[in-house]
Amino acid sequence: MAADEASLLPPPPPGSPRPETREGFDDRRDQTSQALQVAEDSAAAVPFFEEETSVDPAVSEESNGDLLQDVDEKPALPREQDSISAVIQALEEDSFIPPDVLDATLKGSDPAPDLSFSLHLLGTKYNDLVKRWLEKKSLEESAAPKHETLTRKYAELWAERKRLYNEVIELKGNIRVFCRCRPMNSEELSKGHSSVFEFDPSQDSELQILTTENSRKQFKFDHVFGPQDDQEAVFAETRPMVMSVLDGYNACIFAYGQTGTGKTFTMEGTLENRGVNYRTLEELFRVSEERSSLMRYEFFVSMLEVYNERIRDLLPENPNLPSKKLEVKQAAEGTQEVPGLVEAQTFSIDGVWELLQAGARNRSVGSTNANELSSRSHSLVRVTIRGENLMNGAKTRSHLWLVDLAGSERVGKIEVEGERLKESQFINRSLSALGDVIAALASKNPHSSLGIYSHLPFCNFFPFICWTLMFVQISPSSADLGETLCSLNFATRVRGIEQGPARKHADPSESFKFKQMAEKLRQEEKERARLNDTLQLLHVKYASRENVFKEKLRDLENQLAEERKARHLHQEDGNRFHNKPPLPPANQRRQPLGRISSNLPPPAQPRGSGGGGDWLAPVPEKENLPSVKRKLDNGGGAGGGATGKPPLMKARRILLAPVVRPAAAPAAGQSRRRASIAAVPGGAGDRPRARLSLAFSREVAATAGSVLRIPRRRSVMMMPLGTPDGKAGARGGGGGAAASGNKFSSPPQQGQWRSRIPSMASPRQRLRFLSSPAANRNMSSAGGGGAAQPAGGKLCFSVQKRLVVGSPLMKMKSFASREAAAPPSIIGRFGSAQRILSTNRRKSVF
Ligand SMILES: Nc1ncnc2c1ncn2[C@@H]1O[C@H](COP(=O)(O)OP(=O)(O)OP(=O)(O)O)[C@@H](O)[C@H]1O
């Protein structure tokens, strides 16, 4: 046995009998190997392994733990024979063999030590297998949810990447224009032509054309490739756009330019310098391989040629048969199709080059003076990509058009005639149509171009194309300057059309200016909206307030009407006052004038020669009506003839009844405006005093529609109108003169009056009480004992109150003009309102 073979055997356990001879050892090794093989085979065959997918990891771990626990708990078997039985039983039951049982197989004097050793080895191996299997199963099951989460996340990220990628492509522009200038060829150099192409590689989107010796014309494109840029550099810029085709977007790359400027070189290239077509397919295969775990792609290549407005298949199934005529038709789902066009499926990049070359060989080529190998047809390669998402089953189908257009040179330059002239005309017409189609595409109404340019089939596909890349190929030679400028102008037009309102290539400073303007406009719009809202709110507020005011006005008018009505009734009642003036019902005493008027005395008889008798006659209307005023002027003036003064002005409110006013505040629902005059016994001194308590409500209607706010309650203390000797004798009109003198010349004191008279139910009761001897006694004692009593126990005074609203000075001036000699006495002032006592109107109260 070789040494290395011996090293493969496991070391025998300590204490185990070892064979002495090489032969014995070899036999034992063979037996062990056979036993191991049998054990492994049996382990592979037992259902234990087949059931692995149905075992719960928690349960398996638990059972594993139980097994190990059982091992610990089982007592060591003393006898070797028993241990062998235990091992065999464990194997039969597919359970873990306890290590001590295994060890026991080697102990003692076994008649077959090799068998014991083999059994031990087998058991150990078996235990290892069970342990590994359990670990593997546990790992698999714990990783399963993670695997699912990761797969889902991957799918989400992939979808997001796809969206962002295509968004970037869109932001870069749906139509991009690259310019490529080929190097000067030997013929041009030999003829001594100079290069008109100027290009700074650091400014890779600008080029300049020397139009004359001193002037240049600048052009800007998405990218400019100079003569030194190779095919790889060109494709590096193209690659990002190609990728979106795999995401299900249609795309188109076409080369445009004068004959011999390198269109075919850019698109097809050569074996050494493969062009865009080959590199694109190569890239598509590479990426599809990358995505193979998520997507499955199928690629189909078609090649066709448009020659003199006829479509020809460049990959016919049988090249020997004449090519059939193809047409672009609209499919049922609205897409454009070319029925009958061969679609060659390609499974790898290996066969693509051959395929492209075969198609290129079938192109209609001719020879002109401009370029011997110039193609007089448009060559189109269509790559169809069918994709299927392996996770959700979503399917996509997209086309990539790779177009090598015919030379764009003007007919006049090429000296052709006959068939060649016809070709040139077709070419020029189709190229001019291409511009129109692109313009329609850029004007966001690409469907308008459908069907009108069937001679350029890929134009019909433009509406379904997500993005387009145009290579404008130019020659650097001064001999081709005219054609170069034409091509560049056309490309500029294509790019300019696309730029329009698009998002790219806007001047940064201009865009910043526009952004600022837009921001300002937005702010102004916001402000305008805010002001509008405020205005609306004010309108609403104004409308609600107007309603409130209208309501108030209506209330006031109602009150005024009630007052008029009450006054009218009270004046009628006044005619019967000598008997018992009736009080209006409590609910009609809300208005102060109603209350006052309810106590009107009976009309006084004319006294004296003044004959002012009729001024006290019941006035049907308000006292400040013009008719009344005239009456007052005539009668009152005469009545007050003792002074001979004309009345100051119309009185608005007249209080005639002496009212004992309780100190308590008016109950809710009572009149808001009250005026009362109470004649009460005076204080110390021999002069009887009458206290006039004038209480005003908070609001006094000064004029219709205006409300004057005054303090809720005021009491005005006034001197009584009795005679200095204490006789408050009855006075007629002439008595007015006495009362108008110094009785009210000094401003009255203001103070709080507290009634010492028992509260009476009604003014009439109070009046009776005041007239009674008991009251006189009562008042006399209250007044200091020494006070003279009113004659006959009767109280007689005259008072007139006037409410003047407005500036006191103005009113005074007004009074002065009419009554210069006797200014009215102001007995109370509440804000801009004054209470004035005048003597030109008097009423006697008993
Ligand atoms: N960038 C370039 N670098 C090197 N050689 C170039 C380049 N561009 C064009 N050429 C060479 O110029 C010649 C004319 O090119 P090509 O045939 O591609 O022009 P074309 O525009 O396709 O002409 P046509 O309109 O006749 O098809 C070819 O020999 C080509 O190898």
Would you mind describing this structure in some detail?
The chain is of the alpha+beta class. It folds into three domains: 3-156, no CATH class; 173-317 and 328-501, Kinesin (3-Layer(aba) Sandwich); 561-837, no CATH class. Helix content is 42%, strand content 13%. It has 22 helices and 21 strands. The strands form six sheets. Strands 1, 5, 6, 7, 8, 11, 12, 13 and 14 form a nine-stranded mixed sheet that branches. A three-stranded antiparallel sheet has the order 2-3-4, with helices on one face. It has a three-stranded antiparallel sheet with strand order 19-21-20, with no helix packed on it. β2 and β3 (206-210) form a beta hairpin. The longest helix has 67 residues, at 508-574. It is flat. The protein starts with a helix and ends in a 9-residue tail after the last strand. The relative contact order is 0.06. The N terminus and C terminus are likely disordered. The structure holds adenosine-5'-triphosphate (ATP). Adenosine-5'-triphosphate is lined by residues 182-183, 257, 259-265, 371, 373-375, 407, 473.
Share of residues in helices: 40-55%
Query: Rough shape?
Result: flat
Structural class, from helix and strand content? alpha+beta
**For the terminal residues, how far apart are their CA atoms?**
160 Å
Catalogue the ligands.
Answer: adenosine-5'-triphosphate
GO biological process, one term: microtubule-based movement
InterPro entries: Kinesin-like_fam (IPR027640), Kinesin_motor_CS (IPR019821), Kinesin_motor_dom (IPR001752), Kinesin_motor_dom_sf (IPR036961), P-loop_NTPase (IPR027417)
Protein name: Kinesin-like protein
Keywords: ATP-binding, Microtubule, Motor protein, Nucleotide-binding
